[in-house]
């Protein structure tokens, strides 16, 4: 198996009528936190959606290898079972489906795909309570429909809760910090940091420096016009803060 958890080579992708990513190359090792920054329309969210397998996006050329396997041959469900998690910029509401029911289905679906037995009800509820406490989520939310009537901060907290429940190998946070106040931002950051291990990796897609002050990335990339134009350490974040994306 490759030393890389994720390897993207010369990726060209976009919508049927418009190519958005024009030859992206990216390598992520187990345990690394990568930040992808860039202006609006740069292709950041497109990259996250392509990795997760969102059907509206099409790959015209290039390759994506995840844990030594061809990610592009997998359905979105298979990618999730393999350990890819995407936290949405705008989490969707699912009326009629409680958080408990939703998470039980998701957790056991992945366990089944990995050849494991479904969790017993008592064990699942214990895990549910532990992870809700971990992200400081009111236990009453377990009975509520997924994201229905949630504030922006509550939706983002629910995303981190789902991440904690599923324990993915690669977490993609697509502008999870957008619209959050300082307290909610800290909860998101604390969750990401606490879930991080030497084997788990993250991609943080963001415009802003604030989240990266709490979750310090190992490597920072600047994505502009569908291409990665700069890669380095935290000094890139500081340069963006002082000079903007036009400096790249």
Describe this protein's structure.
This protein is of the alpha/beta class and 248 residues long. It has a single domain, classed as Rossmann fold (3-Layer(aba) Sandwich), CATH 3.40.50. Helix content is 35%, strand content 29%. The strands form 3 sheets. It has a 6-stranded mixed β-sheet, with helices on both faces. A hairpin with a 2-residue loop joins strand 11 and strand 12. The radius of gyration is 18 Å and the shape is globular. The protein starts with 5 loop residues before the first strand and ends in a 5-residue tail after the last helix. The model has no long low-confidence stretch (mean pLDDT 93).
What is the CA-atom radius of gyration, in angstroms?
18 Å
Structure annotation, total helices: 8
Specify the CATH homologous superfamily.
Answer: P-loop containing nucleotide triphosphate hydrolases
Q: Strand percentage, roughly?
A: 25-35%
Q: What distance separates the N and C termini?
A: 35 Å
How many strands appear in the DSSP assignment? 12
Q: According to CATH, what is the class?
A: Alpha Beta
Kindly report the spatial arrangement of strands forming the biggest sheet. 6-9-10-3-11-12
Main β sheet profile: 6 strands, mixed
Q: What does the overall shape look like?
A: globular
Order of helices and strands: EEEHEEHEEHHEHEHEHEEH
CATH third-level topology: Rossmann fold
CATH architecture descriptor text: 3-Layer(aba) Sandwich
What percent of residues adopt helix (DSSP H or I)? Answer: 25-40%
- The stretches of 5 or more residues where confidence is low (pLDDT under 50) are none
């Amino acid at each position: 198996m490759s030393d890389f958890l994720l390897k993207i080579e010369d990726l060209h992708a976009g919508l049927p009528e418009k190519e958005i990513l024009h030859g992206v190359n990216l390598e992520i090792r187990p345990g690394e936190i990568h930040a992808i920054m860039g202006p609006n329309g740069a292709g950041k969210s497109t990259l996250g959606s392509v990795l997760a397998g969102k059907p509206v996006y099409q790959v015209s050329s290039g390759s994506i290898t995840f844990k030594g396997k061809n990610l592009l041959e997998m359905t979105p469900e298979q990618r999730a079972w393999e350990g890819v998690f995407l936290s949405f910029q705008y989490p969707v509401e699912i009326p009629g489906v409680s958080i408990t029911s939703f998470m039980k289905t998701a957790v056991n679906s992945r366990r089944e795909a990995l050849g494991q037995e479904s969790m017993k009800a008592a064990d699942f509820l214990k895990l549910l309570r532990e992870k809700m406490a971990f992200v400081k989520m009111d236990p009453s939310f377990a009975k509520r429909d997924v994201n229905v009537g949630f504030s922006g901060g509550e939706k983002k907290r629910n995303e981190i809760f789902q991440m904690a429940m599923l324990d993915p190998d690669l977490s993609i946070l697509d502008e999870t910090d957008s619209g959050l106040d300082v307290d909610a931002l800290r909860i998101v950051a604390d969750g990401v940091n606490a879930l991080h291990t030497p084997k788990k990796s993250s991609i943080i897609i963001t415009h802003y420096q604030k989240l990266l002050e709490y979750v310090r990335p190992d490597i920072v990339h600047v994505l502009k016009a569908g291409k990665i134009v700069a890669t380095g350490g935290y000094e890139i974040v500081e340069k963006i803060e002082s000079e903007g994306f036009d400096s790249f």
